[in-house]
Structures are given as structure tokens and as C-alpha cells.
Amino acid sequence: MEKVSTRQTNIELLRLIAACGVIVLHYNSNTDGAFYIAPDNSINQFILVFLESLSICAVNVFVLISGYFLSRSNIRDFFKPAGLLMQVAVFAILAFFIEKILIPGSVTIDTLFEFLFSSNWYIYVFIALYMISPFINVMWKALNTAGKRILLAFSFFFFSVYPTFIDVLIYWSGRQLNGSSTIGLEGSQAGYTIVNFILLYIIGAFIRDLSDSKLPSNGNLFPRYFICLCLDMAWAFLDGIRQGKKIYDTIAWNYSNPFIIAEAAIIVMIFLNLNIKQNKVINKLASASLTVYILHLRFLGFFQIEKFAKGNPLIMIVHMIITVIVIYFICFLCHLIYKYPARLISNLASKKVGGFRKISI
Degrees (nearest 5) of the Cα angle 32, 38, 43? Predict the structure, then answer.
């Protein structure tokens, strides 16, 4: 039992860090974000590229964690996706009306649609993955060890390596190669797809199987992570130099990029290897990670990122750290306020629905 608790706390800490990583990503890339303000070839830009490369695997980490845990259970609760959708809707509608009151001229119905949908693409794709994952589990369990490795290798090649190769050809040649990717007509879509989520889920399931025997040691994992990180940074700079475009416009940071997937898998294994005792504070803070994902964009605009992105590099780093901490704390408070009425509604609905709220494959 203690081993499970320790691992759970390790993973909860990873969830917390990954949520902070998502804030960093949008600190850089959001409208008027740091990437669009920091001068090219400046120290600030190098720092931002480094932090982006550290944080870009955050979304993949969330999905890998899901694969790690959900691969051992074929029971799915309809209240899980319903609760996520309700949380997205409540916060989106509240943010819409607050902005409409504060800045009425710039808020339209399209603003509400943005708050509901494009800002929360992860939630909708995750819900689809959550509901179909028991069937993935049945297939995975039916395979022997060799079959699992072959499936993982084929999936990684066809849904990460090859699509990224096609994206590179398109990016560097400027040619239209629609239809040549194994993911979709328009290429990999930077990994914002159910295909990438399924690949990550399978990798998470594979890591779970590995953890039953023995994971690679952190002494072996850290150098591999460092290599992936350095190659990814070099790739981003190379794309920028070759194409003469903004550094953010790079394939290096596609969620389906092999290096980004590898970084996420290595980080998950590193945290699984850590010996951290059960910690209620970490678990409590990490419980707000999805709320942070849903809400953080609503607060970034208040932190005057454009002012600091072109200033002193050290002050920019301090400002980013403060921004991440403050936004996480605000979202955590919103989570605490929201969860009590949400739990009440869930309990009332559960009494009405009864056993129909869950399915088991």
C-alpha cells in the first residue's frame, strides 16, 4: 500500500509541475506573449526557447499519466466527462460575462465560443480518449510482450516519426503535400489530435507494464532527457534561422514530434522512480491541475508580459515565476470554490442515474 501512495504522490507532483508548464507555454505563445516581444537572437529569446523546450511536453505528460493509470481499469464513469464539460462551461460563461462588463466593446459571441472550445481543445480530445480507452485496454491485454512492442513501434513510426518527417518537408520546401501524412489530409496538425493522444496512451500503458518489473534508473534517464532537450532546442533555432520566421513557428514543438513524446515519457519514468512520501499538500494542490488548464488563459493578460519580455533577463525570469505561482494559486482557489457545488450536483444526479453512470468492458 505504501508503494502505491508514494507513486501517487510522485505523479501528483508531476501533474502540478505539468500544469505550471502549460502556464509557461502560454506566457510565451499567447497573444502579446513573450515570444512575440523578445528581440530575435537576444538572451531573453534564448531563455524563452529553453523554458519552452522544458515545458512543451506538459500536455503529453498529462495524457501519459492517464494511460499509465487507466490502462489497468476498464470501468468508465460518465460523470467524469460530464463534470469536465460542466467545469469548462461554467468558467467560460462566467469569464464571458465578466469581460463583457469590464470591456464590453471587445467581447462578442465569438469570445464565448473561444472560451468554450478553442481554449479547451485538450478537454474534448481527452474525453474521447477516456471513453474509448477500455477498448484499447482489451486489445493491449490480449497482446503478448512482443506484440505490445511491435504495436508500440509501428504506432510511434506511423503517428510520430513519419508525420513529423512530412511536416519537415512541407516546412522547409514550402510545397503542398496534403494527403501524404498518415494522420490526416493536412499533416500531423502539430499533435492536436486523438491520434496523438492514443499513441501517448499506449506509451503510458507500456510504461505501466515496465513498472511492474523495473524501470530504467534515473541515472540512465536524465542523460536521455538532456539529449532530447538539447536536440529540440537546436531544432527550434535551426527552423527559425533557415526560414527566417518567428522562433515560435517551428515543428520542434509539435506535440507529435518524437523528441517531445520522448521527453514526456522520460519525465514520467523519472518521477515514478522518485522516492517521495505521501504528501497531502502536494496532492491537494495537484487536484486543481485541470482547473488551471481550463482557467489560466483568462488571467495571463493582466500580467503585462510584453513589458517584461523585452527587459532585463533576470527580471523576466522572476516575473514569469511570479506569474505562474499567482495564476496557479488563483485557479486553485477557483477550484476550491467550484468543487463544492459541483460535488453537490454530482451527488444529486448520481441518485437519479444510479448504476447507469458507469460502464464496464
Answer: 150
- DSSP-assigned letter for residue 217: P
| Number of Cβ atoms within 10 Å of the Cβ of 17 | 16
144-183 pLDDT, tens digit per residue, is 999 999 999 999 999 999 999 999 998 888 888 889 999 9
Instruction: For residue 76, give Cα distances in angstroms to 70, 281, 344, 355, 360.
Output: 9, 28, 20, 12, 6
Q: Sign of torsion, CA 210 212 215 218?
A: positive
Model confidence band, residue 244 (pLDDT cutoffs 50, 70, 90): low
Contact 357, 83 (CB under 8 A): no
Q: Under DSSP, is residue 185 helix (H, G, I), strand (E, B) or coil? A: coil
Is residue 269 a contact partner of residue 224, using CB atoms and an 8 Å limit?
no
- Report which of 194, 108, 135 is spatially closest to residue 159, judged by C-alpha positions: 194
| Residues contacting 357, CB < 8 A, separation 6+ | 77, 78, 79, 349, 350
At 77, is the secondary structure helix, strand, or coil? strand
For residue 359, give the 3-state DSSP assignment: strand
Q: Which residues contact 169 (CB under 8 A, 6 or more apart)?
A: 175, 177
| pLDDT, mean over the chain | 92
Alpha carbon separation from 49 to 23, 44, 318 (Å, rounded): 15, 9, 16
